[in-house]
Design a protein that fits this description.
9 strands, single chain, 314 residues, three-stranded parallel beta sheet, disordered C terminus, LeuA/HCS_post-cat, mainly alpha, globular, two-stranded parallel sheet, 2 domains, 2-isopropylmalate synthase activity
Length: 314
């Protein structure tokens, strides 16, 4: 079964200062504790973890919880790296050259040309058994880090290739640990970003509520996230209707056009979408409480299933 090897610990360990002073030793000890949590989480999801020799003892804290499904430490694999611009020659040069020894090669393409994830996926779809990279990829660790393993995993998932990875809904925990280690993870980072399932455009909201599988290669729950409907200058009447129901209100149909105008004006003034509190304030400011009947909050299409709310057209 294909293996995805996470190099995150090695990459972060390189930038730790040498532990000469008391403060530096405390930093190293804190990192070792953090590393134990990281190893435990990665193993729980099914990734292989590459551990720096000086941090081997960090694995001891998770030995009791190991399932035996995956090894934790790297074996004697030859690492093939530096193929950062080989996407267009993969079929004609790279794969024919290394196919015969693929079972001994750990592929770790660089991302200087922005195609490391695509190369890693191609390698595995061709039958390559092992890819090395890191959670977050070059966006967090630089182009020499290799592909973003979470992107590789979800790309293979969309292709129907079995990787043995489980509990990818724990990826938000990995994001939290990366932030704890000082890494800046964008809210729009593919797979890891908290806002990747936030939708605003009226026609997009209309379509995604009716047929989410046409817009999303995997459900939000697959990676431990939720779909969010936000309202702003690109919203339509459907967006307002669904957002109101998500917040427990039934917005009168006769009021939608006026509300849409107010929402778009406010979003234009502040140059960003509205918060839930701002939207609720507009609803209550424009309509008396008796006109805003309560609504079920489980019929907004936010769980990945087709919505039961009547949506009409944006």
């Amino acid at each position: 079964m294909p293996q995805l090897v996470d190099r995150t610990l090695c990459l972060l360990y390189r930038v730790l200062p040498a532990a000469h002073s008391q403060e530096e030793r405390q930093t190293a000890d804190a990192f070792a504790l953090w590393a134990g949590e990281w190893i435990d989480l990665m193993h729980h999801m099914g990734f292989v973890v590459e551990i720096p020799p000086d941090l081997q003892f960090a694995a001891a804290s998770v030995k009791a919880r190991r399932t035996g499904k995956r090894p934790i430490l790297n074996g004697p694999w030859a690492r093939l790296s530096g193929c950062c611009d080989a996407l267009y020659t993969f079929e004609t040069e790279l794969w024919p050259r290394f196919a015969a020894i693929k079972d001994t090669v750990e592929f770790c393409p660089g991302d200087h040309a922005g195609c490391a994830t695509a190369l890693a996926v191609l390698w595995m779809l061709k039958g390559g058994p092992r890819v090395a990279g890191c959670i977050g990829g070059s966006a967090l660790h630089g182009p020499d880090a290799g592909p973003a393993l979470e992107e590789v995993a979800l790309s293979l998932y969309a292709q129907g290739l079995e990787t043995g990875l489980t509990h990818l809904d724990k990826l938000p925990e990995a994001t939290a640990l990366l932030r704890e280690a000082g890494q800046e993870v964008s809210h729009h980072k593919a797979v890891l970003g908290a806002d990747i399932f936030a939708v605003e455009s009226g026609i997009h909201v209309d379509g995604i509520v009716k047929k989410p599988f046409l817009y999303e290669p995997y459900t939000p729950a697959t990676v431990g996230l939720e779909r969010q409907i936000v309202v702003g200058k690109h919203s339509g009447r459907v967006s307002l209707r669904i957002k109101a129901r998500q917040l427990g209100l039934n917005l009168p149909r006769t009021a939608e056009e006026h509300m849409l105008e107010l929402v778009q004006q406010l979003a234009e003034r502040q140059q960003c979408s509205l918060t839930d509190a701002q939207f609720l304030d507009l609803c209550h400011a424009c309509h008396p409480p008796e006109s805003l009947s309560s609504a079920r909050t489980d019929c907004c299409g936010l769980s990945g299933a087709t919505a039961s709310v009547e949506v009409g057209h944006a």
